[in-house]
Every structure is written in C-alpha cells, then in structure tokens.
Amino acid sequence: MSNIGADEGFPRVPESEPHRGEIDQPTGTATTGHEWDGIKELNTPMPRWWLWVFYATHVWALVYIVLFPAIPLLKDSTTGLLGWHSRSEVAEEIDTAAVARADQFERIRNLPIEQVADDETLRNLAVRGGESAFKVNCVQCHGADAAGGIGFANLNDDDWIWGGSLEAIEQTIAHGVRHAGDDETRLSEMPAFGRDGMLDREQIAAVTRHVLSLSGAGPADPAGATVFADNCAACHGASGEGNRDVGAPRLSDAVWLYSSDPAAIRAQIHNPKHGAMPSWSQRLDPATVKQLAIYVHSLGGGEEEGSREASAGAID
Amino acid sequence: MATLIDTIRNDPRSPRRGLQGVGAEPVRSAEPVNDRELRSDYEARRHIFPSRVHGAFRRIKWTLVALLLGIYWGTPWIRWDRGPAAPDQAVLLDLARRRFYFFGIEIWPQEFYYVAGLLIMAALGLFLVTSVAGRAWCGYACPQTVWTDLFIAVERLVEGDRNARAKLDASPWTLTKIRKRLTLWSLWLVIAAATGGAWVFYFADAPTLLVDLVSGTAAPVAYTTVALLAATTFWLAGFMREQVCTYMCPWPRIQGAMLDEHSLIVTYNDWRGEPRSRHAKKAIAAGRDVGDCVDCNACVAACPMGIDIRNGQQLECITCALCIDACNRIMEKVGKPRGLVSYSTLADYERHAQTAATLGRDTARAEQRGPSISKVLRPRTILYFGLWATIGVAMLVALAARGEIGMTVLHDRAPLFTTLSDGSVRNGYELKLVNKAGEPRSLALAIQGLPDATMWTAENGERTRSAVVDVPPDSVRDLRVFVLRPAANAAPADFAFVLTDPRSNETVVEDARFEAKEVTRK
Ligand code: SF4
Ligand code: SF4
Asked: Closest Cα to atom 2, ligand 2: which residue?
C-alpha cells in the first residue's frame, strides 16, 4: 500500500520501515508519510460508525437487488422477489382512479348527452376525457388544434355540415360519415357534374363565380345563378344556406371545407371528393363518444339545440 | 507551548495521548501508537460524559432550550381565525391543498418566492450572527445542540453526574445498569416520540390529527414520519451527539469562512493561564513562574464536544461556552478574576497576549474586559446586515402590496384563431382567476381596448364586454373566454383583460393579444 504512486514520483514510505509514521506536531496526529511540497497528509482515523453506515449501504443494495428489479438483461431486467414494477404501479393507480370515477362514467354512459353537459362535474370530466380521447383518435385528421385542413372539417368554428348541437355531434361521431359498415352513418353524395357530363366547363365556371358571390367573395354572375338554381339549390338551398339533413355544406359563409380557391371549387363541382369518417361507436364505448362530443362542442362552435336558425344568418 | 503539548499527550482522556517522538521533552508514556496492532483506519466513538455546569451561560442555554422546545411543541396548537373557508391553525403547511399559513399570512404555491426569501434571510442571518458572535447558532440554537442538551440532562438525572456515568458505562451489565439504561432509554424514547409527533402537527389540523394518531386512524405516512423522526432524534441526540457536528454537519465548514479576527470565539487566554500548575503555591515558593490555570480540567470535563479548549480554537468547538462557566467558577474559588476562558475575538486575544509578553501578565489581565464590541460594525457585518435587511424589507413590501385577487391569461396556441362562418374571427383564452380571500367574490371581468370586440365565456354564451364571474373563496377558477372581432376589423391587435373586485376596487390588468390573419397586402 505504501508504494502506491511511487512510480509517479510520489514520495514513498520506505518498505523497510512501514510503521514509522511521523507525528504532525500541531495536531498530534500521525501522518501517512505522504508529502506534497511540504504539505503532509494526516492519517486521521475515520469514525467507526461511518464504516458501519458504509457497510449498511451495501446490505441495503444487496437486499434491494434481491427484492426489486435491478439488473438489466438483454431485453428485460431481473424482476425481484417482490414482483414490483413501476408500470404495474401506474396500472394500479389508473385502476384505482377508474374505480373511483366508475359511477361518474356510468352516469355519462346512461344519461342523455344534454343532461351530462348540464351537470357541471360530469361536463368537466367529459371535456377532459374527451380531450384525451381526441388526441388519441381524432388528431390524425382533424389536427391537434381540431382546426382540420383541406377536406377535414375545422371543429372550432360555427359551421357544421351535419349539425353542431350536442346530439348532432354525438350522432356524427358515433356513426361516422359515409362509413360503409354502419347503417346509421351520415350519407350524402354530390353528383360529379363535370365528369358525368351534366354541366359543361362554361357552366361550371359560371356557377363557381356565383358560389363565390354568395359569400361576397366575388361579383354576381346571372348565368351562374341560373345553373345554381337548376342544379344545386335543391341540396344547398336557394341562397346557398346549405342543408344539414343531407349534409350539404353552407356555401354562403366564410368557411370552406375544400378551400375558397376558384380552381378548387371548380374541381369539386366537376368531380367531388367525399371525405369519410369512421363510425366510432364500433371502436369506442358510448361514454367515450359522449365525452368526445362534449369536448368538440366545447371548442367554441357548439350550438344549442334548435338554434340552427339563430346562427344561420346569411352574409350580405 | 511545550508544556501544553506534553499535557495533551499525557492526559488519559485525550485521544492523542502517548504520542511521542517530537522534540526532546520528557517522555512519560512510551506507547508505539503507530504499531500495526494499535493503528487503525477507523476509530470508535468515545463516550463523553460532560459534567454539570453552573453559570451565566448555562442559564442562558437552559432558557433557550425551554423557549425553543416550547416554540416547537406549542406552535401547532395556536389557533388563528381565518373564516369558515380556511383552517384555523396559526402555522400550517397544508400539502394537500398546497397552502402555507403563517398567522395572518397565507402563501400559495406560486408565491414560493416568499419561502425562498425567508431561506435566504435565514442564511444571511446566520452569516451575520457568525461573523459577529462565531458559532452562536451551534452553541445555542441548533436542534442538535438543544436536543442533545435535553438528552444529557435526562441522562444526568437517571445516571448521575460525570463520574457516576463514566463508572456505570465502564461497569459490566449488572441489574442496576440494565435498570438504569432501560429507564434512560425509555425516557429518551418518549422525548423522541414526542419530537417526531410534534412535527406532523405542522402539516395537518393538530387537534384532529392528535385524536387520529392516538386512535390509530391517522394516515400511514403520519406514523412513518413520526417513527422516522423519533428514531433519528433518539439516535442523534442520544448516541451520536458531537459526531453529528464533527463529521456530518456542513455548517462548521461553512461557518469557518464567516469568521474573522473580530468574531467572538471561545478562547482560552493562555497568556494568562500558562504555565499552568496544579501546585501553584509550591511552584511559587520554588520561584517558578505560574499562570492562572490551575489545571483542574473543569473545562475539559464540562465540554460536550470532548475537547480541551486550552489547545486553542478547534473545529469541534460549538462555542457553547460551558467551559467558560466551568472555569469561571474555579477562578472564583481560587480568587482570580473570571475570564481565563472567555468569549474573545482573535484581535483582542492577540492584543492581550502582546501586552502580557511585554508588560506582564498582570497588566494584560487588568486590561482584559468583556469582549470588545467596537468592531461589531465592520464592512463584513454591514454587508451581511444590509443584504439581510434589504430582502426583509422587500418581502414586507411585497406582503403589504399582496392583492387578494389575481389573474393569468393564456392565449390558445392551437388554433391561434378561428374564422367563423360570417367571417368574424374568434380567439380563445384560458384565464385563471384567483381569489385569495376567505369569502367568495363576484369579480368583474372586462376587455380594455378593441371597441369592436365582444367576449363570452364557455359557460355563458352571452356576448358582452364585461361579465361578472363568481370565484369561490381561497381558490383559483379556470375560465375559458372567447373574444370575437367582426369580419371588418378582424386584424391582430393588443388589448387587455381587466379584473376588478367591486368591493375593494382592487384591479388587475393583464395584457393579451388578439390574433387573426394578417391583412394581405395586394
Ligand atoms: S455543527 Fe451543525 S449540528 Fe452541530 S451544532 Fe452546529 S449546526 Fe448544529
Ligand atoms: S470547548 Fe468550550 S465552548 Fe467549545 S464546545 Fe467545549 S465547552 Fe463548548
């Protein structure tokens, strides 16, 4: 031990006299015999309890290794005798929380959605739950901000293709749009006016101008107005106010599903794209669907029951 | 100093006894301490049996022990009426509801800077006290010192004073020893349990918790806390004592940096005491020079840290001043002035030593008075005090100006804004309305600026520019607010939310931003 570091030029205690420690005069403590530029290292004994604490930490570590997951293996780790795992702990906590809230979810499941929304506790729970369910199931199309995109409805605004009341939203989520496997799904199909030769290029251009004029985005176009009245008004309404029963979007407002670009409008008339949405009742339980509906309704555009007319004021 | 070193070496109580090989002093015990058998890297704790002390400092310390323990045990039981919505415990750290109550002050988690300020003040206060009066904290106020004092007092009560305790400790395990130790440990345990028990009362309503604790219905964490603190108290005050200060605690190391030559430290005035002599009369008769120290070891016997203050300032010394009391009594008995061991600054000590060396011991002793306070005000202490006071005043001002209502505004990030069907633009905001008062408040929320804008809340769709919002007592209300600008003016702009308490007219204004599509230049 006394020769450690001898090669690095540290002073060494001569092998022949290993115990002839020197006593440091002011402290009366033995030195280790090591000296650096005249500074000598005192050989102060450590407290013995310190040693025991040190050993105790080893015992603790060994016990820990035996009881808890500790040693990483290739894929997994040792499991430990107690079988404890942080994930099972989380799972347990989630279960406990679920049990604690079970009756509230039960009420959400059984009550009509209007009554759920009227109960402050249930509504808060539903908005939170709906938000997380939205992040898992809906953001892929509608975006994290629920603002949608071209072809995907913005859920924040007050323009609803299939209705913005709680019940209408619940219905849309539960059964989807154009979802083949659901009898109650929202169904609508706009004819391909151009592809199927019902309107020619000129007529399509004219009706596009008329559609833009409906929301004040362009000058009036009498020819287009005639085409509109003959071909479009049946579903979209005489002044383009739309019809939620058949899922015909309102054309007289500032919100566009496939953009307000004239080319996009022309393309949509020529050969319309039809978005689809899954029937979520086939994947999620009714309570979750209700929570989703309440969450979407809370984003700011939700309508009261039967307030369609109130918010349907046309734009001049 | 030769005599001094000699004395240490030959004092049977000194851990450094028997050291040899330095200089040419007579070697009385020739033990090869560094022999393989004797040398150890570790040293067992040696029991210290401090003897009973009477004197001014001991009285101060007893008073402080009573006072500090009284504060510790009594505080949770003080009641303070805050109205029906808040707890009536004067000092309470409500972890579940995240509130800290201190008499008239109530601190919310976001106001943690008060606590930070208090901690900084405590640190600076310690710096200040240390630079003036040395390790006064250690000697008088540290829990380790206070509880150790209490435990030693109980030990003395059960086992007797120093010699009796040392004898009992060395004796084999007779029935008497077992009985005495069991009594002692039981008493210690009771104190320790009470110590741990009192701690949890700071975190819950004390009377309720006491009933719960006794009836076995309190939360498991309460029992664990009590048990843990009882165990540490028992161990640290009963068995570890000076080891805590010497080996565990960081304060002595930090405080070393706070001391200077004008700080008070417990000092053995060797210019007065040396050469010490047990047989002063004989020595004088023999014409030898004799100092005041009669080498009675009273100071060593009194020291709870197990050191000999006559070896000079040592890191173990917590400046408890018990050796001063012990020595003063001896000085009185032998008819010498007090203060052979005294509170003294290094500067004073050096001056006196100088005088003693040049003009003689008697002159120096005549000059020796109480510690000189002329240097209490010096740059270091003024700086510490200035910092300490600045923070204190700032906190007082902040507390006085602390309002009862508050608001934060968070603009929705996604989506930044929403265009509605009529072309108007809507922005969403998360507001947090804070009511720190003990009663419910109806607060007026309004928009300032943007004369064209209207707002509504998620709960109440009515379009307005000013709404009344009820906020329950002592709580934060989350409020979702929408602001709408008509199509014609739908451009980005700054405005503000204004929250007013109509009762007190207290007003909070929070700036906000209205986002919309930038008007495209064509
Ligand atoms: S050294 Fe530490 S534990 Fe000991 S009295 Fe001072 S502050 Fe307290
Ligand atoms: S030397 Fe004196 S002041 Fe220091 S710890 Fe011992 S008794 Fe207390």
From this structure: B323
